[in-house]
Design brief:
- The chain is an alpha+beta fold.
- It has helices spanning 26-41, 122-135, and strands spanning 46-48, 58-61, 68-87, 94-109, 115-121, 150-151.
- Strands 1, 2, 3, 4, 5 and 6 form a 6-stranded antiparallel beta sheet that branches.
- 19% of the residues lie in helices and 34% in strands.
- The relative contact order is 0.20.
- The longest helix is centred in the N-terminal third of the chain and has 16 residues, at 26-41.
- It has a single domain (12-151), classed as Alpha-Beta Complex (Peptide Deformylase), CATH 3.90.45.
- The chain binds nickel (II) ion (NI).
- The site of nickel (II) ion has 5 residues, from helix 2.
Length: 154
């Protein structure tokens, strides 16, 4: 396994629509392992493939409830609203309060290609929406007014 370089805002790969995965090849499996290792190395709770320069529909998440790999994920339903603070490994030093769905149901394939359905709330629901946005070229800073972006000192 390997820790990959996380690309930063300004890199066009973060804005490209990603391609779906049609077959879980060895290369895709290795990429997922490397994405987990990269996410843990930088203390993130989620990472999407474009953030390591790969324009495919793959994301990994671990909000402290165990690792979740998502291939071709999509939100199939959601309810209520929740506002909480959010950051992104590709936008270091910036945070904002972002309005998201409070509960979501997501369908995806897992790392073995098996269809899975995830019902989530709280931080996991937020992470799912943040990572799926990445797969559509959307960053959290797109969802708030520029004046509401908080500059940190990371
Ligand atoms: Ni992010």
């Amino acid at each position: 396994m390997a820790v990959l370089k996380v690309v930063k805002v300004g890199d066009p790969v973060l804005r490209q629509p990603t391609q779906p995965v049609t077959r879980i090849t060895k290369r895709i499996s290795r990429l997922i392992q490397d994405m987990f290792e990269t996410m843990y190395a930088v203390d993130g709770v989620g990472l999407a493939a474009p953030q390591v320069g790969v324009s495919r529909k793959i994301a990994v998440i671990d909000v402290g409830e165990g690792p979740i790999a998502l291939i071709n994920p999509k939100i199939v339903s959601g309810s209520d609203e929740d506002i909480d603070v959010e950051g992104c490994l590709s936008i270091p030093g910036k945070q904002a309060y972002v309005k998201r769905l409070a509960q979501v149901k997501v369908e995806a394939l897992n790392e073995k290609g098996k269809p899975v359905q995830i019902e989530a709330e709280g931080l996991l629901a937020r992470a799912l929406q943040h990572e799926i946005d990445h797969l559509n070229g959307i960053l959290f800073t797109d969802l708030v007014d520029e004046k509401d972006i908080i500059e940190g000192d990371e």
